[in-house]
Structures are given as structure tokens and as C-alpha cells.
Amino acid sequence: MSDALKTLFGRRYRFAASHRLHSDHLSDEENFRVYGKCSNRYGHGHNYVLEVVVSGAVNPATGMIVNLVDLDDFVQREVIEAFDHKSLNEDVESFRSTVPTTENLCKEIFQRLKHFPLAKLERIRVEETSNNAFEFAGEEIPDRMTVR
Amino acid sequence: MVYLTRKIEFSASHLYHNPALSAEENRRIFGKCNNPHGHGHNYTLEVTVVGEPDPVTGMVLDLKDLKTILEREIMERMDHRFLNYEVPELKDQIPTCENIARAIWKILDPKITQGRLHKVRLYESADLFAECYRNGAGPA
């Protein structure tokens, strides 16, 4: 059924984690120049907010794109359990080789959630603090930006 | 093009129940949202209009006009109402956040004649929302 209206469903989650911004490719001096106090040796933590937005047809029997219980369970299993009250640098495999900036965290979370089987993952947003936020919608170029 | 957004808040009650399903199925799918006497939320609605500012007024549309439209079309219909029983646009639908956002889109789209309706975002709580766009338009 074609639908003139695109509908999305969004949900916000929270997790607390520590990290240290430090690149092995840079000297100690350069690390401190680039990352400042975020490079302090023993790391520090944030209360992260994760916003997950999915799209799909609204099921007429339920009024839902996806039952939030199913989305919650998936996000809990794929992200929250892996990141909450953990050290991103030490406890998340991919951050052993990349710096756990919130940009990279967005990409890692998108990778973990893009296989959600019940709706299409549209975008995610990660708020590291209430004053900074990062969004990622995958690497594909949206249709409207395609150069013809 | 400039996108402008206005926000309103309304409070309403609802319940999720599909008469075509058994009591057990309703309970399984909708959980406590299936409680027979309903429950309520403070909804936050964000309406985004897109357009070129008028060269004389500098406005895409006058925010006062948008405020009047939202007051007349949404607040009067939905604020302090039981969505299942008192809002005809939601009759025979489960009043989920998705369906309410879609109903709001369909109500507002023909009423916004200066600029063009771009997005409706409806929060049922701070952690749950639905968004509507014209298909193909995509998020700004």
C-alpha cells in the first residue's frame, strides 16, 4: 500500500559510561593539545542519552510501526547491556582501536542497531551531555541528496 | 527555504484496544495501555512549516496565524479529551502516538496555506515520540 505520509517512531534511552579520548597515533603532548582534559589518564564518565528513530508502515491492527517492547528489548540487548556502567575504551571491542568520541560512538551504535528486524533504522542521536548532541543516519546518501 | 517550528502542549486520555482481537491478545500486545478505563498523557506537539520568507514581512507565515490554527484545530479537538471517544479523526483507530501524529498531519496540512507543512512531531512523553513527513520530503 502506498502511503503519502512517512511515519517514524522515536524512543529515548539512557546509559552511563566512562571513556578516555586518546589516540595511539599521537604523542602525549598532541593528545592533550587535541583532547584536553578528555585525555586525562584514567578517563571520566557521562550520562548518555540515546535517541533511536525507526520508520515503517503503521500496522492497522495495532496502530504501531513497531511495538515499543520489541524495540526496547533490542536496544537493551544490543546497546544498553554492552555500554551501561562500562568503560567504552576497555569493554567495547571496537574502541580498542578507535577513539570513543561521541561521533564514533554514534557509528558503533548505528552498526549495532541497523539490523533491527521489525522496522527500518532511520537515524540515531547521542547526547553526551545536555549541551552537545551527535546524529548519524548511516553512510548511504539520502535520495534527495543524490546528484543527478 | 526556512523551517519554522511551533510547539504546543495538550493533555488527553486514551486506551489501546482492538475489538477484532481477543482479550488475551489485546493484553499481550498492548499491556497496561489496554486497561479498560484508559489513562492519560501530557502530549507535546511540534509543528514545522517550510517556505521562503515573504520579502515584505520577512516571515514564512505569521506565527500568530499558526498559533491560531493550532489552537482551533488541535487544542479545541484534543486538549482534555478522551481521544478514543471524543476525536472523530481517531475513530476506529488505535490512538497510538503514530496514529495521533498522522491524524494531526491530515488535519493541519490543508489548513496551512502559507508555507507548507513539513513535519509533525508528537511526544507522548519525553522518551517516546512519533514523526510524520510528506513521503519523499525527508527530515530537514
Provide structural commentary.
The complex is a heterodimer of chains A (148) and B (140). Chain A is elongated, with a radius of gyration of 18 Å. Chain A has one domain: Tetrahydropterin Synthase, Chain A, CATH 3.30.479. In chain A, strand 4 and strand 5 (132-136) form a beta hairpin. Chain A contains four helices and five strands; from the N terminus they run E-H-E-H-E-H-H-E-E. Chain A has a five-stranded mixed beta sheet. By secondary structure, chain A is an alpha+beta fold. The two termini of chain A are 28 Å apart. Chain B has 140 residues and is of the alpha+beta class. In chain B, strands 3-1-2-4-5 form a five-stranded mixed beta sheet. Chain B is built from four helices and five strands, in the order E-H-E-H-E-H-H-E-E. In chain B, 32% of the residues are buried. The interface between A and B is medium-sized, with 27 and 32 residues. Strand 1 (5-19) of chain A pairs antiparallel with strand 5 of chain B, so a sheet runs across the interface.
Topology of this structure?
The complex is a heterodimer of chains A (148) and B (140).
Chain A: E1 5-19, H1 28-35, E2 44-55, H2 68-83, E3 86-87, H3 88-91, H4 102-113, E4 120-129, E5 132-136
Parallel strand pairs in A: 1-3
Antiparallel strand pairs in A: 1-2, 2-4, 4-5
Chain B: E1 2-14, H1 23-30, E2 39-51, H2 63-78, E3 81-82, H3 83-86, H4 97-108, E4 116-125, E5 128-134
Parallel strand pairs in B: 1-3
Antiparallel strand pairs in B: 1-2, 2-4, 4-5
